[in-house]
Amino acid sequence: MRLLLVEDEEKLAKALSQGLTQKGYAVDILHRGDKAFDRISLNHADYDLIILDLMLPGMDGETICKRAREYNITTPILILTARNEVESKINLLLAGADDYLVKPFSFEELCARIQVILRRPSEIVPAILRAGDIEMNIVERTVKRDDKPIDLTLKEFVLLEYFIRHPNKVINREELLTHLWDFNYASFSNVVDVHVKNLRKKLGDNNGQGLLETVRGVGYRLKE
Question: pTM to 2 decimals?
Answer without folding.
Answer: 0.63
